[in-house]
Amino acid sequence: MADKTYFEQRWGFLAAWCRPLAQKLLYVGFQCEGSGRDDDRQWVTSNPRLQVTLPSRRAFQQDEALYLQELIKIRESLALLAAVARVDHAAWKFLLDAHCHVNWWREGEENFPELLPATFVVKFDNARADIVKFCNLEKSSDGFLEAMKMVAERGGGMGQGLDIPIRVAHDRGTMEFTAEDFEKKLLKGLSGVARAEKVVRERSQRDNGRVDKETITCRFVLEPMVADIQDVKSVKKTAEIMERLLINDVWFSLVSVQVASEAARNDPESIIGFRQLMIAAFDATRRDFKQSNTRYLSNTGRSSPLQLGSLVLHPQMPLGEKEMEALFSALVLNQTTQKLSMWMYSGYYNDDTKIQSWWKWLAYGCFSKRARACSALQSLELSQIGSLSVKEVEAFLAILDSDRPEELLYDCPRGLVDISDATLKAGAQVQYDIQDGGEPHSVTFTSCRFVLRTFSDDGRSEWVNVLVPGFGRCLVRRSELVFQPVQELKLNRPSLTALTLRLNEGASTDGLPRLLAAIGSSLELLTIENPGNVVDVSVIIRCCPNLEVLSLKSGLVEDLQLHVGTRNSPISTLRLDWNNVEALARSLSDMNNPLVKCVRQLKVRLVIANEADERGYQPEEVIRSLDALLQMLAVNKSLQYLDVRVSNEYQRYLSSFRGYHHELINAGLDVESKIAFLSVLDQESAVDANAKKTCTASRIRRRLWRFDQNVLSSIFAFAARRVPRRVCFHG
């Protein structure tokens, strides 16, 4: 690889273009404000992206000309960097580090991936006003055009067109309005962004194919936006704007919404707004991406994206029964998002019945037979789980295994006729908020796109129990229903492939093995925070036979990641002490343990995390832990990434840890290569043993086929690619 001097000589002319981005361009996950609770951490996306925050107009004393001049500088700088990324990937990463000072506050932490795409999340001060101006590269400075020609000459990219993906981030940002105006500005801004997306797309379509043969022709292409909708007191207003945007084919890569404020809990209008929001967010209609004004250029990992790439729900307090009904009765038919993150707050419920009710509704909305057949959900993240006891898991399993879960949810008698799907006739009256001894409310649907589920039906009563998305249990006249037979559900296992469970520290976890045994068969990615000391890693892996990556977090361990899909040996035992880094390092030094060879990433913290952290961090314990980690690095050649956080007094260890940075280690052989190799042997084994004529190559293959598993493992290890290990040590 070329050194810094080479890059400076070849690409140093772009240093001045990088300065406008200094400390404005970060490689981080997008951070949402969260629920606003003091005991909550802010939610951050797991996959970091290059994120640029544009300056505010206030920084230029509202001087529009000066502000636009700065906007153009940043726009042109990003375009030049993206062009360098196209022609020289190593130079692109050099410029980000040396001249843009990306993640400047993380000295010693080199966290760029091997391949870093030139895609950007852009946080505008006023997105509605500035998106069109920012994306207009037609009006570029002479200096920019000359610099782009130099990039093309050095990289051989002349005559190429380059689409640069950006995602607009719309949040509260630096907006400073009165409390009365804030809500209005935030929600109105969403509609403004949607209109700007349309203008940019129309302009892009006009310019499509126009390329200058002497340079690299760039244009910014909008991917679905990121929206963080917080501090909006009216759930109803949030619901109305979201419903309008989704119906009008506005797409989002991420939406974070704060819902169910404590003051609005008993407000009928807010409850209606919450239902409306759930119906919109988890619409059962799958919309065509071709109708969107944005498009994905960067790799999303999905061949067929949905309208809400990821949805984050931040309740300000535990959901009540009505909110649970609204959420999960809509989610079971969801065709809008594949990724959902939400907060449980089960530790705040004051009785076991409510906690068990939450687990029942979760089972119905995400894991039931109906959910497996009808919902597009593939990834679920649950935070603030107060307990995962055997009793709670039993409540969960009762719904999971039931052919008539709706009757169990509402403790209704078994119907005399089979459950059925149904639709409403125009003008049908629906009674909702069905409570014993209470007066239900009524609503009339002039038209209805919902698919309802009948249950506890005796086949003759005038009123029929139905589950309505967003409303839960309702009553509808039999004469106003159009019945449809329920098709046989063919899926026999959960469709979720990714699950994250964030349990509170000290939460009961004795029900975790039973939960994973029931739902783990389809999981490929599993993250558990605070798994407790009850469960051995091997138990988790046995419950999840198709698991590829397991990530565990607890105590002093901020992340321990195992790539279990690469293992070649039987499952072994691996117990971990989350609050003893010295013991953990000794466990990870045992290279005779097959599971240790699966550990790819380790992050440990030997410094106080916050004021509530009461751990001792005695100097002698920290020293023993650091020494043990160094000894582990000396023998463990499978760990690809180590991150150690310490207080500044231990900086003397920096050089020792950095000695292992960029050490070449064995990364293993990918599954596709192993299958290709074994398939050749398999073909040879099928050859007729009585055949008299064989070629020399065939004899070699037959000998390979006779090798046992240990020999094959050695062959795979020899053929494995070598990668540089990353070691980060910082205070």
Residue stretches low in confidence (pLDDT < 50, at least 5 long) are none
What is the strand content?
Answer: 15-25%
Overall radius of gyration: 29 Å
Largest sheet: 16 strands, mixed
Number of strands: 27
Give the count of helical stretches: 22
Across the major sheet, the strand order is: 1-4-5-6-7-8-9-10-11-19-20-21-22-23-24-27
State the separation between the terminal residues, measured CA to CA: 29 Å
Helix share bin? 25-40%
Shape: globular
* Mean pLDDT over the residues: 84
State the secondary-structure class: alpha/beta
Walk me through the structure:
By secondary structure, the protein is an alpha/beta fold. It has a domain at 4-229. 35% of the residues lie in helices and 21% in strands. The chain is built from 22 helices and 27 strands. The strands form 4 sheets. A 16-stranded mixed beta sheet has the order 1-4-5-6-7-8-9-10-11-19-20-21-22-23-24-27, with helices on both faces. A 7-stranded antiparallel beta sheet has the order 14-13-17-16-15-12-18. α3 crosses α4, α8 packs parallel to α9 and α9 packs parallel to α10. It is globular, with a radius of gyration of 29 Å. The two termini are 29 Å apart. The mean pLDDT is 84.
Provide a quick synopsis of the model.
The protein is an alpha/beta fold and 731 residues long.
Give structural attributes:
731 residues; alpha/beta; 16-stranded mixed beta sheet; seven-stranded antiparallel beta sheet; 22 helices; 27 strands; globular; LRR_dom_sf
